[in-house]
Every structure is written in structure tokens, then in C-alpha cells.
């Protein structure tokens, strides 16, 4: 039931067809009580009074997933504090489900009874685990063709190697070998302390150690003479006024966001992180500052992802007109990877609080991951001018599915696409920059260079009237059409 779009690696390391029913509800219980199947996501939900129970389904299996407790009319809370909101309609046999940490909604259809696999025990031997693992990817993963991976061939090759006496270590190795060619940072295999996960070749995963090293480097090299600098949101957000020209006050700002999570205590519910974010944005985007700034650098080069909803919330501080950030859809047919749910436009609506609407330079790299990428995508079509500088992002956008296997192992995989206005995705390749610069290479560190930051300062110093800024919208569309 997980919705946060962190990398599968980060998640792994921290986590170590029935007929529609009639429109009858249970007397004395909420009208949404009963059984519901999601459109896509391989999930059946059982609502019974104060309890919501998830069942993770494939064509060969049904396993219990997460549960949640009812907290109010149509709302449920999971053990990790995520709030689910279920709204009935349209019609008596349909409903929608939303998560406070995510964007978009899942469509539900009422069903009469649980699938048969949910009512009988599942074998825990290695062969059953293999079958659930393979079907979980075969029925949900959207990118086999784009990755050049024949998943049926994977089954043909590896299934004969699995027997009743196959050890967990051997099975973990087989699963790892099967997903290795995907090079997908939203794919992982977990078995206790064992983790297999990887990032796109030529990139490195975000980590606390890398974040701390880069933050120290930037503070000393780029912000050493900043007239104002302050950390917010548990250190995940840094803002600085950059020194101005000799004849004027500071006219550029620098905003570093290292993630869209962890703004307060890790076990705090989403509203607490949102409140901390708003306090930071209110302190940064004062009326005096937003009137003074001629440009803003947003640094996402080391960003491990988190909540897409927090990213959209920040984007709402950077526009004075509503626009569509992207459209979200999920694969929804177990045998046809080209069938999807109807794309749902995700809108950015100007915030009621203080906003900055001038030119923005966004710094990205291969370590800009997941929600860091969806936030980058949300700025592509913003009014006011946005130029991207640095390296392509990692290329993973979907919320991740955390699927339990019968033997206690876990598979993590994506099933969604985030579409640009041309109807394409940036999965695999990442969002390309308009202006390419090296990012935190050995040479950059050794020579104390920060080429992407310096390029952004120069672009914005020209008040945005560079060729790159003038061609921002055209370049974004052109780059999008070149993908997949």
C-alpha cells in the first residue's frame, strides 16, 4: 500500500476477477463497507467497519498486505501514519481512493466476493514464491519493452532452476539476476538484511554521506559569502541570498532541497511534515525577498525523493497561474502492458501564501531521484521561465508497489507513468537538462569547481534573457518528444 516515491534502494535499506456486486451496504456500517478492486495496482480492499485490509493479488495468488484503521468518515490511517481517503461514487458500485502523501487517485469497483486465492492457503516453498514474484512484474511493470527485457524469457530460463529444496539464498540470487537488466532504481528484492537494488549505470544513489559531503562543499564554495543562509525542515532545505552585483543588493536566491520527506520526526504523520514545510517557505518567501529577487536557483542534484504531494505543494509557491504539472496513469491489464488507467491531470494551483514567480534555474543530476524528478517535471511548464542545468535525472517516477511473497521475501516495483504534455514519459532516460554541466565529479571536487551552480548564476544574472531561458518551453517539449 506504499505510495511514497523514494528510490527502491532507500526503501529497501530502511525497510530491510469477480463480478460486480449490487449496491447493498451492510446495515449499521459505512456505505463503503464491503469488497473493492482497484483499477490497476493488483489490489483488493476489504472494508469492514473500522478496519481496512489490503489483499495483494496476481492471476495466481492472493496475499494479505497492509491494514488501516478508520479515523473518520471515509478516512483510514495505516501503521506508518499515512492517511487514506475513500470517497463513494460515481454510482453505488464505484469509489476513489487517495493517499495524503501521493498525488492522484485510484479508481475502485465493488466486487461480490474475495478472489478464490484469498480464501485458501498459499504454499510457502520456493516455487510458489517464484511464481508470485514473476507474475507481480509480468502483470504490473510497465517498462519491459523500453528496457529491452523479455520477461517471459526470464521465466523460461530461471523457473527450471527452482525446486522445493531451493535455498532462500539461491532464490534471492535468482530474483536479483532476473531484475538486474532493468537497471531501475524503483526495483528491489528484500530478504531480511539482504537487499538487491541498483541505479542507472553511470549514476550513484543518494545517501546521507553523499548529501553531507555535497552540502559542506556547497556551503564553503558557493555560499561562503552569502549575506543570509539558513537551514530548515530538519536540514533537508537550505536557503541563501546570494551576493549581488556591486551596485545592488542580493538579487538572486539559492534553494537546496535534498528530499521531500524527513522534514520532522520520521514517524510523524504527513501533516506534520507539511506544516514544517510551510513554515520554511513562509520564512524564505517573504514579501520583501520575492519583490527583490531577479532569479532563484533550486538545487535538486542530491535528492532522494519522498512525497510527490510535498513537491506539488512547493511548486504552488512558484506560480501565479494554475497549470498542469503532469498526468499520472497506471498499467491496469495483467497481459497487455500497453493498457493503462485513464491519465489523471495533476494540477498546480497558486498557493494562498507568499510566492515567487520570476525566473528559476533548476540544478539536476543522476542523483535527482523519484519525487525529486516529479518536482522537476512539475516545473517544466510553469509560467515565469525555468531552465534546467546539470545532468539528466535518474529516470524513475512511479509510486512503488511493495509486494509480499509467500516465503516472506519482498519485491518492490513501479507500475505508474508520469506523462508530459506530449503524452510521453521520462522513465529510464531521466529529464534532460537544457544546459549540460558536470555535477560533483572527482575533478569538480578536486578543483573546487561547481560548474552547474556557476552556470545558473550567469544565466540568471542576465535577468533570464539568455537563449536558454527564451527557449525554455520549446526545449522542454522537444526533449520530451525525443523520449521513448
Would you give an account of this structure?
It is a single chain. This protein is α+β, with helices and mostly antiparallel strands and 484 residues long. Helices cover 26% and strands 26% of the residues. It is built from 14 helices and 24 strands. It has helices spanning 8-15, 126-140, 144-147, 151-158, 168-179, 208-221, 270-284, 287-292, 308-315, 371-378, 442-446, 451-461, 467-470, 472-481, and strands at residues 5-6, 34-38, 43-48, 51-58, 61-72, 75-78, 83-88, 94-99, 106-111, 188-191, 194-197, 228-232, 237-242, 252-257, 295-299, 305-306, 323-330, 344-348, 360-364, 386-390, 400-404, 410-414, 416-419, 435-436. An 8-stranded antiparallel beta barrel has the order 2-3-4-5-6-7-8-9. The protein has a 7-stranded mixed sheet with strand order 12-13-14-15-19-20-24, with helices on both faces. A hairpin with a 2-residue loop joins strand 3 (43-48) and strand 4 (51-58). Helix 9 runs parallel beside helix 10 (371-378). Mean pLDDT is 90; it is low at 12-29 and 469-484.
Amino acid at each position: 500500500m506504499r505510495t511514497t516515491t523514494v528510490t527502491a534502494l532507500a526503501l529497501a535499506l530502511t525497510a530491510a476477477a469477480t463480478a460486480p456486486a449490487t449496491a447493498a451496504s451492510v446495515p449499521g456500517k459505512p456505505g463503503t463497507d464491503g469488497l473493492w478492486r482497484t483499477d490497476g495496482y493488483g489490489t483488493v480492499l476489504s472494508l469492514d467497519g473500522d478496519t481496512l485490509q489490503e489483499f495483494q493479488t496476481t492471476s495466481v495468488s492472493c496475499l494479505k498486505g497492509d491494514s488501516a484503521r478508520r479515523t473518520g468518515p471515509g478516512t483510514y490511517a495505516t501503521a506508518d501514519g499515512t492517511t487514506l481517503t475513500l470517497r463513494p461514487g460515481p454510482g453505488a458500485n464505484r469509489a476513489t481512493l487517495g493517499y495524503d502523501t501521493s498525488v492522484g487517485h485510484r479508481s475502485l469497483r465493488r466486487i461480490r466476493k474475495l478472489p478464490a486465492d484469498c480464501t485458501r492457503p498459499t504454499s510457502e516453498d520456493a516455487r510458489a514464491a517464484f511464481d508470485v514474484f514473476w507474475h507481480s512484474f509480468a502483470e504490473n511493470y510497465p517498462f519491459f519493452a523500453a528496457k529491452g527485457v523479455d520477461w517471459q524469457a526470464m521465466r523460461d530460463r530461471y523457473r527450471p532452476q527452482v525446486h522445493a529444496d531451493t535455498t532462500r539464498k539461491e532464490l534471492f540470487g535468482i530474483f536479483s539476476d532476473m531484475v538486474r537488466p532493468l537497471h531501475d532504481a524503483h526495483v528491489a528484492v528484500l530478504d531480511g538484511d539482504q537487499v538487491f537494488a541498483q541505479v542507472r549505470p553511470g549514476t550513484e544513489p543518494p545517501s546521507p554521506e553523499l548529501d553531507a559531503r555535497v552540502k559542506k562543499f556547497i556551503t564553503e564554495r558557493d555560499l561562503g559569502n552569502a549575506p543570509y543562509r539558513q537551514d530548515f525542515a530538519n536540514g533537508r532545505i537550505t536557503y541563501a541570498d546570494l551576493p549581488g552585483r556591486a551596485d545592488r543588493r542580493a538579487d538572486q536566491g539559492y534553494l537546496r532541497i535534498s528530499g521531500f520527506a524527513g522534514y520532522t520526526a520520521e514517524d510523524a504523520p504527513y501533516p506534520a511534515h507539511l506544516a514544517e514545510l510551510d513554515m520554511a517557505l513562509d520564512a524564505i518567501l517573504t514579501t520583501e525577498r520575492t519583490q527583490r529577487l531577479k532569479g532563484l536557483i533550486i538545487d535538486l542534484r542530491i535528492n532522494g525523493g519522498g512525497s510527490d504531494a510535498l513537491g506539488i505543494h512547493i511548486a504552488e509557491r512558484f506560480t501565479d497561474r494554475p497549470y498542469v504539472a503532469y498526468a499520472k496513469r497506471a498499467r491496469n491489464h495483467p497481459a497487455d502492458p500497453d493498457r493503462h488507467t485513464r491519465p489523471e491531470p495533476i494540477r498546480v494551483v497558486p498557493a494562498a501564501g507568499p510566492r515567487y514567480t520570476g525566473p528559476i534555474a533548476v540544478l539536476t543530476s543522476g542523483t535527482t531521484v523519484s519525487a525529486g524528478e516529479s518536482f522537476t517535471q512539475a516545473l517544466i511548464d510553469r509560467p515565469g521561465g525555468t531552465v534546467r542545468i546539470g545532468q539528466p535525472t535518474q529516470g524513475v517516477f512511479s509510486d512503488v508497489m511493495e509486494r509480499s511473497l509467500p516465503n516472506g521475501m519482498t519485491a518492490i516495483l513501479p507500475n505508474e507513468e508520469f506523462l508530459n504534455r506530449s503524452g510521453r514519459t521520462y522513465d529510464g532516460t531521466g529529464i534532460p537538462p537544457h544546459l549540460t554541466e558536470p555535477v560533483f565529479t572527482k575533478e569538480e571536487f578536486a578543483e573546487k569547481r561547481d560548474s552547474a551552480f556557476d552556470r545558473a548564476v550567469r544565466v540568471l544574472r542576465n535577468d533570464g534573457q539568455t537563449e536558454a531561458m527564451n527557449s525554455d518551453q520549446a526545449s522542454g517539449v522537444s526533449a520530451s518528444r525525443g523520449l521513448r
